[in-house]
Amino acid sequence: MERPRHQGMAKNTYMRWRLPLVCLLWEVAMIVLFGVFVRFDAEADAHWEEEKQEKNLTSDIENDFYFRYPSFQDVHVMIFVGFGFLMTFLKRYGFGAVGFNFLLAAFGIQWALLMQGWFHSFKGGKILIGVENLINADFCVGSVCIAFGAILGKTSPIQLLVMTLFQVTLFSVNEYILLNLLHVKDAGGSMTIHTFGAYFGLVVTRILYRPNLEQSKDKQGSVYHSDLFAMIGTLYLWMYWPSFNSAISEHGDAQHRAAINTYCSLAACVLTTMAFSSMLQKKGKLDMVHIQNATLAGGVAVGTSAEMMLTPYGSLIVGFICGIVSTVGYVYLTPFLESRLHIQDTCGIHNLHAMPGLIGGIVGAITAAAATEDVYGKEGLIKAFDFTGTYQTRTPSVQGGFQAAGIVVSLLMALAGGALVGAILKLPLWGDPAAENCFEDDIYWEVPEDEESDAYHMHNPDKASSP
Amino acid sequence: MERPRHQGMAKNTYMRWRLPLVCLLWEVAMIVLFGVFVRFDAEADAHWEEEKQEKNLTSDIENDFYFRYPSFQDVHVMIFVGFGFLMTFLKRYGFGAVGFNFLLAAFGIQWALLMQGWFHSFKGGKILIGVENLINADFCVGSVCIAFGAILGKTSPIQLLVMTLFQVTLFSVNEYILLNLLHVKDAGGSMTIHTFGAYFGLVVTRILYRPNLEQSKDKQGSVYHSDLFAMIGTLYLWMYWPSFNSAISEHGDAQHRAAINTYCSLAACVLTTMAFSSMLQKKGKLDMVHIQNATLAGGVAVGTSAEMMLTPYGSLIVGFICGIVSTVGYVYLTPFLESRLHIQDTCGIHNLHAMPGLIGGIVGAITAAAATEDVYGKEGLIKAFDFTGTYQTRTPSVQGGFQAAGIVVSLLMALAGGALVGAILKLPLWGDPAAENCFEDDIYWEVPEDEESDAYHMHNPDKASSP
Amino acid sequence: MERPRHQGMAKNTYMRWRLPLVCLLWEVAMIVLFGVFVRFDAEADAHWEEEKQEKNLTSDIENDFYFRYPSFQDVHVMIFVGFGFLMTFLKRYGFGAVGFNFLLAAFGIQWALLMQGWFHSFKGGKILIGVENLINADFCVGSVCIAFGAILGKTSPIQLLVMTLFQVTLFSVNEYILLNLLHVKDAGGSMTIHTFGAYFGLVVTRILYRPNLEQSKDKQGSVYHSDLFAMIGTLYLWMYWPSFNSAISEHGDAQHRAAINTYCSLAACVLTTMAFSSMLQKKGKLDMVHIQNATLAGGVAVGTSAEMMLTPYGSLIVGFICGIVSTVGYVYLTPFLESRLHIQDTCGIHNLHAMPGLIGGIVGAITAAAATEDVYGKEGLIKAFDFTGTYQTRTPSVQGGFQAAGIVVSLLMALAGGALVGAILKLPLWGDPAAENCFEDDIYWEVPEDEESDAYHMHNPDKASSP
């Protein structure tokens, strides 16, 4: 076949030494840092037998493992299969979607264990980890997966690793400010994960703006089966989101409540997404892009408030609104952002994570401010917002104010951090693809031949018939 | 391309105003009804701290959430990924299979929370929900997913929503009659979910009979990769069925036992399905349709009895028989039903749910009738069949009789309900596709272009080579 | 179409009577044996109410079901979806990969319940089963799935069933020797599952050596979407491996620790796999074969030691090494084994299971030998290695020696067993395919026509354009 492929490949995308070097050196660094710092926490350590006696625990079932491990595994699936497959919708970028997501998340969880560990689990010079740390590491990486969605198909694996390094670091700082300094509640991460991750990614993609991206326009769409692969990602995100929002809530009613609220919000979101997907299209047909993404906005938007007494109908309202906002965003805002603001947002994370994340922060602030002893019970209120110690005298309305402050902090951190990291990624060191090679696995992956020739036939029916 | 597509499209399948209107209005109704009625139950409410003290519970692990949440998530996966992907086997209806299943289930779980709530969790004017309600809502929707299998590819999304509204309502009534009035045991829903759902769907599809359906015959088959997508659905249903049948059983041994029995039954079912799939085909080759469906019949058929002392070998026998019955059904009964009784059953739910559901009801009745204090222990027998209060004096053999009555009631409710709903769906209001457009995503979905031209090439190799 | 397919089909692959006969007779045998031997254990039996009182258990949550069921379901997914889909990478063997894996595993778990039951759960003439037995049965079948990987595409379903029958038997004997006679720890099965399963399969495929296999060389590769299907398998294996290695560990800290260690090892493994995949390819591109397989080696290699105090950084080191060993194996060893030693290893199980399994055994032996009271605590050390009863006086260093002996025994059992079973499978009774029909679903499966003609076009673009 004489097809002149990648004729304009001006850029050097050769990964052979750069990628291995980064992977190996960074992994060695992880080993050294883990060696110095990371140990098991009391419930995962072999001394647990003695610990049990000290704490007067009568049964192994009291180990935090049994409270959180099922949710952890659901979250784990969301990060690797959920985000990974959601992004396989592109016709020729399935390997990159699922494979690079795998790479950055595998690195990210290690770095997150360290970063979050230093901030939250540092005792006696050691980071003590248990299942809750694993969940938090997955959460932190979730925010990177979100940002990845904005730049999907336009970056090299090295850029993704660099972004992960910085974003995990900044995530942890932001999380520390919110959870520890502002004493904000955000168990499902509307602010820390979604708002932060999405605006971070949007700024990065803005800085990496590619004026000639229309050269790979034909590869920015999906094919029939790639849309079905993406639905695997969508459904696992959708189904397990109740686990996501409840995974690190307090034991007992809080976890229980968070799951129910999220379940309700997501259900409502599906209906308004379908409604607006059909309504906003001239022929009234449903658009897979909306179904794959906007149906999830309801989970994002109760991330802060799910563990509070949002109530099932409150959750339905939030889901109702977010399905609309998100779908409308896909139809009107994404093209506007691209043409006017030069924000090329491959997966539309602005619609799925940024706006619903902000809504989630606001809903959380309102729900917190509206909390009363009547609704929560005296002890319930203290437990729900951890009004103990230094925060013993904080009232719900003050809490609402701090929650609102948390949104602003997350947003600012994301914008500043994204600008910094975007600038770093713009350096001509990382082997990113030329505009005409975006959204194409062939640059970084060995792609099986058969299907390529098949794809070739698809795109060039004329030539196929007269070779 | 001059291909005259959908030339006979006499019917108006334009969804632009009808679908959004239904989705939005119904979702608003859900919000209002949830606002009036739905609250958290004691274990999900912030007052749980006080509740714990009242009930003398020493640990949060006693919250029902920890007993049932892992099973809930498995059931959730079965409804959305299991049923959704099982139906993607059709070559050009993958979006409809997984997307409409998503839509109807998302609406259905909300309506089911209300309907089942009024019957079972109504206290002081409020429906109090917890994780068990979520499981039951998923179960209820499962019966709609089953009925969807019969009419797959032949209905509009609005018809599916209308069917969901009515079927969930009737399901709840039937369930109330069985569980509360007849005091029947049916934790895995052989009667309430499978028998009811399947016969309901079969009557609906009978009433919606399309004499010219052979016009879309070429689209009723699968392609290689669509069969693999369907296997994702099959395997998740198969693997998680032990969770399905044990999800709402009593804590402790009943949940444990239900999982083991189901595991055994399903294993046996795979072997007889494979055996008969090969035996009934002239060339002795295995048929994906059987593997995708009949392997699951063993799970359906122990739905009632799995939590009883069916024993592992009893389960193997049930699975053994159902693999045969179901496979034989696909080979001989489905064509017969279509040609003689005008029942066009796209997924063969008669073989996977109707017959095994009936068998399951019968096995349950026999197992109940055969229960003895020797096998269950004195307390065990009382606990297993809830022979307390009004039912204190009921004996196992009487229980067996009531179980049998439950089958008959479910069957009659399904036939009557299916007839009613079928008649409603026949009204020329809902935008169903013309016969030549059945099994075709293009009617209701934006379908990516590339692959369509690819599919076009596949079906018309001659034209492809001389355009 | 005049394409002369399977022209050289000298072998009789007609399954119509042989496969059904084997399936039905063996299933009947299972029923009889289950009827004679298998009953519920105390925690799944209806007498549990009384059992609870005897054991002074205050809550149903103490039932082993709640400690192990979530892990069981994860393991179950690994066996059926994980292994099944991992093997769908071949362009025309997806049905066989997922379907035959389904068949052999469904039979294998039944036979394993019996075999393992006689060795480990035999009380008063009965095998008493609970959730832990289900996990162990899945584990045992896992070793068969591994061996299946070596002979994938080259055997008939009957051969696979025969292999399963023998391999499960030998697995159980080997497991008994290791766990009971040598008192070895191997909760994640580096030795019993991976080393045994892999070397067993390698010997079988050596004995079944096909000199003319290059006749089906064109079908040994993948296509774009088959590689994505395989990634579903990869990711589920990767994500749920922490559950695999912790599923049957002691309650409490051991399960907790095993999950954390495995999580860490797998994360490191991804980075070194990516590094070496890129480094060992001239163009520096990543190879899907490595990503699909070598990323999992880290889970295999902590199978023995994960529940010990391996520590997170120890796990990182193991994962680091195994990603390299496994990837290098795919690039250099697999071609060598095929050309020089005539070992045709379809999935490269030597790289994913054999070498990492051996490493896992060695790491386990070292970790055990290095155990101290300081690290484990006095009670912790006794509990971790079960130094009670007969083994009360065993020291960690002696334990290390026994662990090492366990590796040797597993290896020898695998080699001898594989030779025996390979010889049996070589008998001309089982309907295996001719060399030119290997890696082709069409021999044993009804394959939908459309896609075949599509595949036909792909391979023969010339003919497609001038029919």
Automatic annotation (TrEMBL), chains A, B, C:
What is any one of the record's Gene Ontology cellular component terms? basolateral plasma membrane
Give the way it sits in the membrane: Multi-pass membrane protein
Query: Could you mention a single GO BP entry for this protein?
Result: ammonium homeostasis
Limits of the Ammonium transporter AmtB-like domain = 62-428
Localization per Swiss-Prot or TrEMBL: Cell membrane
UniProt GO molecular function: ammonium channel activity
The UniProt entry, under InterPro entries, shows:
Ammonium/urea_transptr, NH4_transpt_AmtB-like_dom, RhesusRHD
Question: Per the UniProt record, which residue ranges are transmembrane?
Answer: 21-40, 66-86, 93-114, 134-153, 160-179, 191-209, 221-240, 260-280, 313-333, 404-425
The UniProt family comment states:
Belongs to the ammonium transporter (TC 2.A.49) family. Rh subfamily.
UniProt protein name: RHCG protein
From what organism does this protein derive? Centropus unirufus
Q: Which gene encodes it?
A: Rhcg
